[in-house]
Amino acid sequence: MNWSLSFEPFFSWPVLAALLAPVALLALAGLWTRQRGAWLRLAALAALGAALANPVLLDEEREPLKSVVAVVVDESQSQTTIDGRSEMTDQAAAELEARLARFKEFETRVVRTGRASSATENAQTHLFEALDGALRDVPPSRVGGAVLITDGQVHDIPENAAALGAPVHGLITGEADEMDRRIRFERAPRFGIVGKPLEMTYRVIATDEQRGPVEVRVIINGEELFIEDALIGRETRLEIDVPSAGRNIIELAIDPVEGELTDVNNRAVALVDGIRENLRVLLVSGEPHSGERTWRNLLKSDASVDLVHFTILRPPEKQDGTPINELSLIAFPTRELFVEKIDDFDLIIFDRYQHRDVLPILYYDYIAEYVENGGALLIAAGPEFAGNQSIARTPLISALPGLPTGDVLEQGFYPRLTETGERHPVTRGLEGSASEPPEWSRWFRLIGIDRPDGQVVMQGANDQPLLILNRKGEGRVGMFLSDQGWLWARGFEGGGPHVALYRRIAHWLMKEPELEEERLSAAGRGMRLEITRQTMEEGAPPAEITTPSGNLLSAELGPAGPGRFSTGLETNEIGIYSITNGELTTLAHVGPVNAPEFGDMVSTLERLTPAADATGGSVRRIADGNLPNIVPVRRTGTASGNDWIGFRTTDDSVLKAVRRVPVFTGLLALALLLFAFGAMWYREGR
């Protein structure tokens, strides 16, 4: 029973004071002047005040509350991938929970954390974040303490651990004499220029005393390039050439040694995005025409393109008597462009160009050879392509994907995608192509060709080829059989997607990886592996996946649009996945690159010791299977000893019921008041 006195006045305290204060002053004045009956008047006033204040005795029934003890179990990959740690952790958690259950003073909350539900969680071990979540609804006075069952590799230890106000104990799994070697990148740029050297640095770290050289294998995009020696503990310089545009995976690997804890961290990965140095394009316009500046403006607007543009304004056969020294025209540097520096260009465009002896006939052989050796050529044809001076009547004929029939069709038509074009990356999904007729303007000229060689991706009037893309040797050739694309650029009848189309054509010719017809790509999005296959076929076979641990998986690829098939897999392993689909193979890294979780995997007491000391807790190993005893302690007591750990108890309680006993009510209060006032009246009357 808990008795206490409380007041429940009939009026508010200010009103009560206002009523009694004048009477009290009169009573005190009577005492000061020693008037007769002053004490009786003061007693009557006190009885009246007590009646109005209404004193009440309270009997409270309370139930004591328990202290909350959090048991945080580390289930991160550094725990689960190393033999013995997971079993040791589970046994310790079960035994600790059973021991805590014997104490009525404690409420136990077990939190298991570290399993990969996201890339961030799988990258680091956040035990204190889990601890904060477990105790978020508990008042500080009821926190009894916490136990972290872990290997000691915790990555979110707060600087102000003492703010918890209760002891934090660490029970460390793993052995005291573990040996491990690991490799990590010290400096790894995110971007590099394709074909140019990229400087990186790395370091090999070991827990043993070895200081000799270690063989480091350098692997780029799954292909081992070379092996070099590195000294343990010393930052080592590495120089590589960025092999390709887009994502490149750079791996460094060291072989495991006998007695090593794990080989999971024997690899380091860097993702380098290859950026192509400015592409050089040579644009030769055979004559001024309405669409000449369309190609020029598009290429000039692309920051990744260096454009060299010539327009033939004065062909050699033009003789009008103007002295050479009075001409302001620049001579066309044919030898410099097509002999000396032709290999410096990534793309050559002939825009309505015809053979008029500007180029020596031998130079067309050089251009055809340039294409065979890996160059790119685009023919933007006009009526001259069908005439007697067509470049198809030169040695360039060997590189062209079609020969002119001599027909020039002059009528309105809508450019349309062919079945091939609906799947080809250059024309696939062009805005306006899905409707019939397409939601773009008409063109009015088409050059006829015979027996097209390559992929016809667009067609014009009478289903005649309009855009042909072809591979020739190591190079590529494109042929646009109309000079009417400028109608789209000028907005005629609403215009059309000329920017997207022209840019895709140019970049396909220059071998942009994302525009390849047959392409397998994969990427990690968090802990999800996404696979995409581009193909000109009607379907794609299942993808064969090799996980970082060597397991083999198979995944069906579903339609994701014309010419595209994709799938996505939720994964629980961080690392490099190898994906094969048909004859294509690619790599993808899932999860954080070089996650701290896989950096240092040797169990340690050092990380948690400062936090435990700040809170009055302790850190100890449990590899021998002996758990410390549990002792309830007061809030100011010591919380750890040689073979025991303590948790604080609380004085908090919850109110279950209250019994009220009024003190100054009923007949007793009435009798006291009558007696006091009667005595006062009697004394005053004498």
Automatic annotation (TrEMBL):
<feature type="transmembrane region" description="Helical">
    <location>
        <begin position="663"/>
        <end position="682"/>
    </location>
</feature>
<feature type="transmembrane region" description="Helical">
    <location>
        <begin position="12"/>
        <end position="32"/>
    </location>
</feature>
<keyword id="KW-0812">Transmembrane</keyword>
<protein>
    <recommendedName>
        <fullName>Glutamine amidotransferase domain-containing protein</fullName>
    </recommendedName>
</protein>
<keyword id="KW-0472">Membrane</keyword>
<feature type="transmembrane region" description="Helical">
    <location>
        <begin position="39"/>
        <end position="58"/>
    </location>
</feature>
<keyword id="KW-1133">Transmembrane helix</keyword>
<dbReference type="InterPro" id="IPR029062">
    <property type="entry name" value="Class_I_gatase-like"/>
</dbReference>
